[in-house]
Amino acid sequence: MKKFKFRWLGLLAVVGAAAVILTGCGQKSSSGSKGPLICATSGTLYPTSFHDEKSNKLTGFDVEIVRDVAKKMGRKVEFKEMSVDGQLTAVKSGKADMAANDFAVSPARRKQFTLSTPYKHSFDSLIVRKKDNSGIHSWADIKGKKAAGEAGTNYQRLAKQLGAKPVNYDNVSNDIYMKDVKSGKTDLIMNDYYLQKLALAAVPNNGLKILPNMYFRTNEDGKGSGIIMKKGNTKLQKQVNKALASLKKDGTLKKLSEKYYHADVSKQPKVHISRTFTIK
Predict the structure, then answer these.
(1) pLDDT digits over 156-176, tens only?
(2) Strands 77-81 vs 37-41: parallel, antiparallel or unpaired
(3) Contact in structure between 102 and 221 (CB atoms under 8 Å)
(4) How many angstroms separate the CA atoms of 187 and 165, rounded?
C-alpha cells in the first residue's frame, strides 16, 4: 500500500520532514551563481514529490520537472524536504531558490512570489463514502458534514465556507484520511482530482469514491500549477520559463504527465465543472 500524502493548497500548519540531500537549514540559495539550485519540496506527496518504494529515491512529477529544468539551465539541483508552509518560508527567506509541490499559479500567490508558467492543469473533486455518498448529493448537503484536511488550506477554508466542520490533520498519509472517511469519523475530502483518483487506486477496498457530478474550481486554483520563486527574481523566472517551454516543445512534459498521472496534465482538461467558488 502506498502511504503518500494528499496535496493541500494554501498555508499548511507544521514544518515536516528534515532536508534530504546535502542541505542544512541555514544554507542560503544559490540563484545568483552557477552553484546548485536549492528546491524546496515535500517528499510525501504522491505523485508530485515522493520517495520510490524500491530505491527510496526522491522522485515525482514536479521533482523530475525541476531536475529537467535545472539540466536545461546547466545547473545541478538539491532538494530540501519540508511542509508547504516551510517551503513557502524557505523561498521568502532565500534559503531556497524555488519550491515545487503542485503549487497553484493563482492571483493570491502572485502577490507573494514570482511564479513560472504553469505546467500542470487540473480541477477539484470530493471524495465521499461509496455506500451513501456521505449524505452529499448537492453542494447544500455539505453543511454540517466533517471535512478532512490540513489547517489553513484553501480546501478547508472552502469547506468551512460551505458550512462543513473542518477536521484538521498534520503530516499524515492518504490512507489515514481515507480510513477516517470510511469509518464515518469524517465525511469528505476536497482535493485535486488527479491526486484523489491516484490515492483511491493506491488504497484497495477503501469504500470510497469521487463524486462525478460535483467537480469544482476555486479562484485560488489559478491557471494551473508551477514553480514558485522569491518575489522579484525575474532573472530566475525567465530562465525557468525558457526551460519549461523547451520541455513542452520536446514532449518531456507530456511524457512525465503520462508517467506520473496516467493523463496529459500539461494541457487543460475537458470536463464539466459544477461550480466555481470564490474563497473568502
Answers:
(1) 999 999 999 999 987 677 788
(2) parallel
(3) no
(4) 10
Peptide bond into 47 cis (omega under 30): yes
- Cell numbers that stand for 66 in this block: 525541476
What is the C-alpha separation between 232 and 206, in angstroms, rounded? 45
Contact 128, 209 (CB under 8 A): yes
Phi/psi of residue 88, each to 5°?
-65, -40
Predicted confidence band at 12 (pLDDT cuts at 50, 70, 90)? very low
pTM > 0.85: yes or no? no
DSSP string, the chain: ----PPP--B--SS--SPP-SS--TTPPP-TTSSSPEEEEE-S-BTTTBEE-TTT--EE-HHHHHHHHHHHHHT--EEEEE--HHHHHHHHHHTS-SEEEEEEE--HHHHTTEEEPPP-B---EEEEEETTTGGG-SSGGGGTTPEEEE-TTBHHHHHHHHTT-EEEE--S--HHHHHHHHHHTS--EEEEEHHHHHHHHHHSTT--EEE-TT--EEETTSTT-EEEEEETT-HHHHHHHHHHHHHHHHTTHHHHHHHHHHSS-TTS------SEEE---
For 243-266, write each residue's pLDDT tens digit.
999 999 999 999 999 999 999 999
Query: Which residues, at least 6 apart from 83, have a Cβ–Cβ distance to it below 8 Å?
Result: 12, 13, 14, 15, 16, 42, 171
Sheet with 98-104: list strands edge to edge.
Answer: 77-81, 37-41, 98-104, 225-230, 113-115
222: left (phi over 0), alpha (psi -120 to 50) or beta: left
